[in-house]
Structure formats: structure tokens, C-alpha cells
Amino acid sequence: MTLHYQRFAAPAKLNLTLLITGKREDGYHLLDTDFRFIDYCDDIDIAVRDDGRIELETPTPGVPPDADLTVRAARLLQQAAGCTLGASLRVTKRIPMGGGLGGGSSDAATVLLALNKLWGCGLSRQQLMTLGVQLGADVPVFIFGRNARARGIGEELEAIALPEAWYVVCKPPVSVPTGPVFQQYSQKLLTGEIRFSIMRSLFGAAQKQNDLQRVVKAMYPAVNEALNRLSEYGSPLMTGSGACVFLELATEVQAKTVFQSLSKDMVGFVAKGLATHPLYDGEV
Ligand SMILES: C[C@@](CO)(OP(=O)(O)O)[C@H](O)COP(=O)(O)OP(=O)(O)OC[C@H]1O[C@@H](n2ccc(N)nc2=O)[C@H](O)[C@@H]1O
Ligand SMILES: Nc1ncnc2c1ncn2[C@@H]1O[C@H](COP(=O)(O)OP(=O)(O)O)[C@@H](O)[C@H]1O
């Protein structure tokens, strides 16, 4: 069997603002968040196989291949579409894991979008989004393909237009698991230290904010430190449930200047905000 690989991009996302507006009966928190794609991407090379096998040739350290979101996405689509073809996958990982940049979710979304085409499954964007949410709350927005305001747990999406912007993104030397952060947030709700942002969601917040930031700063001093370093140049924010923090700037020159003036021990990168996902084809 000769394998022909094609390359597909899986971009990172930033949560430009993240409000928590309530809690569902199953314990998941309701969000009101603006997602923006950035041009910092994992690459996924995919070849169709005729033996039905799903092979991950580049296992991610610390993630068993069967648990890898790329493999799970391929198997889910294969099952849902009744497809007998398989795929070999090679992932070039750049997006830090547990960083709030949605790398795993983006990889899964790219595999769903690419294999839907390569296998000729013919599922609609909406059908792929419904499959994707089974893999993670952030998967649907990457399939939606446009920068979006998301509500619910991320499945109610509305496209938003965003100005051109550049971002300095810093990765503190910690990996922040999403579950425990929400748990800690819930505990603070019980003690009355925190309240839901329903009013700010309805009437708009005075400035962009991330409701999980306070909790993560207290749990991970390195995140606090990174925010302090960036706050010398503007108003930084944490993305998702952390650990990455970012600062928005109007031009590439400004972003590069800020990044270069951070000391060398601060790991990070400069990225451009995208208008749409690289695989978005205009179909709604
Ligand atoms: C909060 C966001 C914003 O983008 O953060 P990041 O993960 O990107 O940092 C995401 O919606 C996260 O989505 P995702 O990372 O898929 O979360 P999951 O694995 O589904 O959730 C892990 C755990 O976090 C809690 N959780 C997650 C999402 C949510 N809206 N409410 C929750 O309470 C639940 O306890 C869940 O079991
Ligand atoms: N292909 C993948 N890339 C990244 N993480 C993956 C992948 N498959 C499974 N995971 C798991 O998903 C977790 C969350 O990863 P990721 O989506 O990159 O971070 P975050 O939710 O903080 O944005 C990782 O810690 C890892 O255990």
C-alpha cells in the first residue's frame, strides 16, 4: 500500500474574554467567551489507508495513542460515517499542551474536517460539530471555522468580526488541568468569594476578563508572574483555563518589540490573529 500524505493545519485559539455565567446540572459551567484563532499551528499529515486501520505514527509523549484526540476523532468519524477506509497520521506538535490554547481540540477538529473530505464521507459542518463535541467542549468552534462568541459550554456559536491584531503569548512553566480549575472555582462560589458573571454577560464587561484567572493565579504562582511581566506593556489576560497568558497589540512590530524585551527565560511566541480557520471554506 503506497501512502500519499497531505498536510493540514490545526491552529491554536485564544479566549479573548471568558465569563462564567452559570452551571449545568451535570456540573459543567456555562461560559460566555470569545474565541480567536491565531497563526500558531500544529501540522497534521494524513494519508488514506485501504485497510481500515487508524495509525498514529508520531505518538505525543504522555498520551497513549488510543487516547490521542487525533486517533479518537478518526475512529469516531469512521464509525459515524460507516467508512471502511483508514488513515495514517503524523502530528507535528507545536502548541503547548495544557496551555489553554486548545491544541488537542484543534488537532481533533482538523482530523474530522480533513478525513471527511479525504474519505468522501459527505458530513455537513453541523454534523461534524455534533460529533466533535463528544471529544471536547472546544472542538466545535474549530470546525465552525470562524472567530466566535460561544455560549453554553462552547456549543452555541455566533461568528464575530475581529480587527487585525497581534499577540504576545507566554507559556509559564506549568501545565494546568482544566477540571481542577473549575472545581476550585466552584468551591469559591460556595463560600461566596466569587459570583457568576450573568450581569456582565448581558450588559457587557467594562474590560475583557477571564473569570478563571483569579483561581489559576492563586494555584500557580508562575501564571501570576507571567501576567505581571506582561502587564508592564498593557493589560494581559490568561487564555481558557491557563496556563498561557497573552497581550494583544495592534501591529507586528509592537508585538515583536514587547516579546524581545521580555527576559530570555520567558517561553512564548508572537502570533497573528486569524480572520478564519485555515481550513474554513466559506460553507456555513
Ligand atoms: C474552559 C475552556 C475554554 O476554552 O478552556 P481550555 O481547556 O481551552 O483551557 C474549555 O471550554 C474547556 O474545554 P475542554 O478542555 O474540552 O474541557 P473538558 O476536557 O471537556 O473538561 C474537563 C473538566 O473541566 C470541567 N469543565 C469544563 C468545561 C466547562 N465549561 N465547565 C466545566 O466545569 C468539567 O469538570 C470537566 O470534566
Ligand atoms: N493530539 C493531542 N494534542 C494535545 N493534547 C492531547 C492530544 N490528545 C489528547 N490530548 C490530551 O488533552 C489534554 C488537553 O490538551 P490541549 O487541548 O492541548 O490543552 P488545553 O485544553 O489546555 O487547551 C492534554 O493534556 C492531553 O492529555
TrEMBL record:
Pfam families to which the protein is assigned, alphabetical: GHMP_kinases_C, GHMP_kinases_N
Family statement drawn from the similarity comment of this UniProt entry: Belongs to the GHMP kinase family. IspE subfamily.
Function: Catalyzes the phosphorylation of the position 2 hydroxy group of 4-diphosphocytidyl-2C-methyl-D-erythritol.
Superkingdom to which the source organism belongs: Bacteria
Positions annotated as active site in the UniProt record: K13, D138
Positions contributing to ATP binding: P96, M97, G98, G99, G100, L101, G102, G103, G104, S105, S106
Domain GHMP kinase C-terminal: 206-266
Protein name from the UniProt record: 4-diphosphocytidyl-2-C-methyl-D-erythritol kinase
Gene3D superfamilies tied to this protein: 3.30.230.10, GHMP kinase, C-terminal domain
Transcription regulation as UniProt keyword: no
UniProt cross-references to SUPFAM superfamilies, sorted A to Z: GHMP Kinase, C-terminal domain (SSF55060), Ribosomal protein S5 domain 2-like (SSF54211)
Gene label: ispE
Keyword Translocase: no
Organismal lineage: Bacteria, Pseudomonadati, Pseudomonadota, Betaproteobacteria, Neisseriales
Catalysed transformations (reactions): 4-CDP-2-C-methyl-D-erythritol + ATP = 4-CDP-2-C-methyl-D-erythritol 2-phosphate + ADP + H(+)
Class of the enzyme per the UniProt entry, highest EC level: transferase
Pathway(s) annotated for this protein in UniProt: Isoprenoid biosynthesis; isopentenyl diphosphate biosynthesis via DXP pathway; isopentenyl diphosphate from 1-deoxy-D-xylulose 5-phosphate: step 3/6
Molecular function via GO: 4-(cytidine 5'-diphospho)-2-C-methyl-D-erythritol kinase activity
Span of domain GHMP kinase N-terminal: 69-145
Record EC number: 2.7.1.148
PANTHER family referenced in this protein's UniProt entry, alphabetically: 4-DIPHOSPHOCYTIDYL-2-C-METHYL-D-ERYTHRITOL KINASE, CHLOROPLASTIC
Alphabetical UniProt keywords: ATP-binding, Isoprene biosynthesis, Kinase, Nucleotide-binding, Transferase
